[in-house]
Amino acid sequence: MRSTTHTESHLIQRIGWLRAAVLGANDGIVSTASLIVGVAAAAPAQSDIALAGVAGLVAGAMSMAAGEYVSVSSQSDTENADLERERRELLEQPEFEREELARIYVERGLDATLARTVAEALMAKDALGAHARDELGITEITSARPITAALASAACFAIGAAMPLAMVFVAPLSLIVPVVAGASLLFLALLGAVGAAAGGAGIWRPTLRVTFWGAFAMALTAGIGKLFGTVL
218, 206 in Cβ contact below 8 A? Predict the structure, then answer.
């Protein structure tokens, strides 16, 4: 008989980096474009607009990195605390933990005898891993990685922010607002489509969603910039 190897690549495996990448790039485009449009609407010099954009890029990237690191570290601390508690319980009450694991499998559809057999086999190989996966829901895919999340968010924010910022240097002063706004909406639409495709979802709804909120943010900041620029 011919032997064949069946391999699968599931989209859920991308959820960690995809979330950080889309969030970072989207935030970079929206916040930096909104800042540039708001400042430009107040009619300052082109150098002032560029400086505001660069400051927004650097500050936003650092903020994203710090925020992502802190939030994911909190998740990691919780996971580690649960794993440590489970490790102690496995040492102190192995029989109870085996029955607990077996009950989980019974609830998933196995009969009691088979559930106990499966629980015994899995605990003999890796007791903590079995309980982490089936009792706590902690897997290799979902486990927290603070440094990776922070770096990914900062890098993607900077890349996203660089797109509208680049428009400041190529557009004439009188056209900065429409050029930055139009290009940013195009970038957002492209990001929504790419993120949806990478995640295996439909393209149109995510694309329209990110484009709408980006347009709303830029319109709001442009209005505020125009108001304060007129008053001042």
Answer: no
C-alpha to C-alpha distances, 222 to 42, 112, 145, 181, 215, nearest whole angstrom: 8, 65, 37, 10, 10
Inside any domain, residue 65: yes
Domain with 61 in it: 15-96+141-231
Query: Does 1 map to a domain?
Result: no
Rounded to 5 degrees, what are φ and ψ at 142? -95, -10
- 0.70 cut: is pTM over it? no
* Predicted confidence (pLDDT) per residue in 180-207, tens digit: 988 888 888 887 777 666 656 667 777 7
Number of structural domains (the chain) is 1
DSSP SS3 for 86: helix
Going by C-beta distance under 8 Å and a sequence separation of 6 or more, which residues neighbour residue 64? 24, 27, 28, 150, 153, 154, 157
